[in-house]
Specification:
By secondary structure, the chain is mainly beta. The protein has one helix spanning 2-23, and strands at 27-28, 34-36, 39-41, 43-45, 84-96, 99-111, 116-125, 142-148, 157-161, 164-166, 169-172, 176-178, 205-212, 224-225, 227-233, 240-251, 258-267. Helix content is 8%, strand content 39%. It is globular. It starts with a helix and ends in an 8-residue tail after the last strand.
Amino acid sequence: MKETSLLSAMLGVLAITSTSAMATGFVALPSTGFTVSGGTSAYTLCNTTGDFGSQESTPPTFSPNGGANNTCAVSSSNPPLTGYTKVAEATRNLTTSGITVGTLTDQVWRDSAGTSCVYAAKIRMNNVDSDPNTAGTQYFEVNDVQRAGFRNRGPVSIAYNFVTRGAGQSDEVLFRAGLTNIAVVHAPGDDDQPLTSVAPISTNWVDFTSDVNYNDPDGSSMRDSSWFYVKSGCTSATPAALNGAMKIREMGQEGQAERTITVNVYAPAGADTGN
């Protein structure tokens, strides 16, 4: 019995390790969505520790034994994929009502064949009142980052890279991602993968759900997002920004107003921002 138990335990560890290793890295977003209880969802789950920002999240790890909490995660941001070279980078202000509430680092990485690109985004929120006309300090909270331009660009996949800088400074993780242009607020007890009746599939838009805020009312304050990556087909054309190709969404997770900041960001050549 002891030998059988030991063997079972070892097989269990191997199964967990294998699952963690297989989950790491870029995850494909099929145009048909994901089968879930009750139907289909546009979303795949990445790191749901912390219940979508209601509590402190647990960062991904990659060792030992395959690590943990690393679904959709990559260990490097430079480059996010082996064989890719950075071909464009820009810093863009996030502004609402004339107030710059944060900055966005926008990048494009491309393979040597010039046919596959990774579009990268990272957000840092400022210590600033986003609505001085309201009593108190209203910090803008990023619940969703949506990027356009991927219709008919071949298989689309996503990943994220989490960075820890020490002294209590680290990124917020990526909770989920999906092919949709509808941002859905998540409260404790909600479905982690909303059905397509709530968030319909859009093959042109990728939605990243996180919880980035310089001073979050729920106490889980992370002013920096992880690097959010979209991998798709592209061309060797010089990257150019597409008007309105990114939406930064505040969805009122702790009772805030629902607000959207629209940003011009890099997108595949010939792309548009339609649904």
